[in-house]
Amino acid sequence: MTNVMVNFITNVIPEAAPHFEGYVYPNEATQQPLWSILIVLYPYITGLVAGAFIMASLVRVFKVKALEPVYRLSLLTAFAFLLCAPLPLLCHLGHPERCLEIMMTPHLTSPMAIFGFVYAWYLMAVLLLELWFDYRADFVRWSEITPGFQGVLYRLFTVGVTDVSEPAVKLDHKLGHILSIVGIPSAFLLHGYVGFIFGSVKANPWWGNVLMPIIFIMSAMVSGIALCVFNYMVLSWVRRKPIDMRCLDTMTMYLFYALVVDAAIEGLDWIHRAYSAEEGFAVIQYMAREKLFYTLSLGQVAMGTLCPLLFLGSMQLIRKRVPDFLRRRLYFTSAAFILIGVLAMRWNVVIGGQTFSKSLRGIMSYKMEFAGLEGWFMGAVLFSLPFITLTILIKLFLSEKLPSSNLDANGSPNSPATAGGTRTGLVARAEAPGARM
Fold this sequence. Notes:
Helices cover 70% and strands 1% of the residues. It is mainly α.
């Protein structure tokens, strides 16, 4: 009997315990990182929200007229991803039904608890109101010409405000402009606090860094603008509509500038780490060379930073000499690479920071499972939900069959060329020569 117990302990315990390389203390032995793919997706999605809103703010706040064709698409992108942003956190909780406790019993010294208030503020007081002011006049028109359930929806969206006179529409745009100004620091706060949480963990050399909130904000801007480029090109290809190259060139110009700043800040972070060479730098070097080689060296640095910098930078210098079709392919490739690279950066921060021990002497092996609440299949489902939501919003609010107002994002009348490019459906047919209604 004694031999049986000895064999059981010898054979079973090593399989049940996690695998480490090197020495760790017993209290550091956990089955797997406590934060998995769901916590990787959470800061990634919130970053896309912040970046997409910044893209829309370039039109309304900074008067970048060339970006008018993607203004509403950027707002809808931010709204769709913001609706799905807390889902990874809720799925990660053991009792997601208790999420409202942070509102009922607020703990104002907890950054995680404050997120509930920041999220509610940004969703209901900023983004939702800005969308409503931007679409209100269109809701009134669409409710009058759209039959069936969709027309009832548009009528409900007006919430009884049906005044479409010029002073009322001008007031809508003025209030929307104010909300856009308020939304810029709100977007930074929405995503910057995630970097604040990681940067506040002083015991972890991978996370404990004062630059972490700034790195998260800049990477959010880069990924959000790249997502807008990606969505605009895909939507144009699906609808078989010509791409506005002036708009696309302007989008990628801002994407390049944001990427340069982001790469410079992250490079400064690594230079400072290497120069100071604190006790945790050795394990960070090992992680970059071994455990995170594919996601850090290849995914984040090579694919997500260097290649887009090369592609976009060359287009800033020789843009006029490059044919449109080649520019479109380079822009699309750069946007896709950046989205992958920023996702790899979130993986490196969340997973990489948990795989080495507090003693800085051991590395945990982590293999993401397929099924289960923390598996990559669940992560893929959650990540697809914002795109499904965006598709529905585009069908409802950016349909080619619906007319749009003859005002730009700043409340000024569109030029004939712009109006002809944005006013579609019934209005376009009504204004065509010889058309009948």
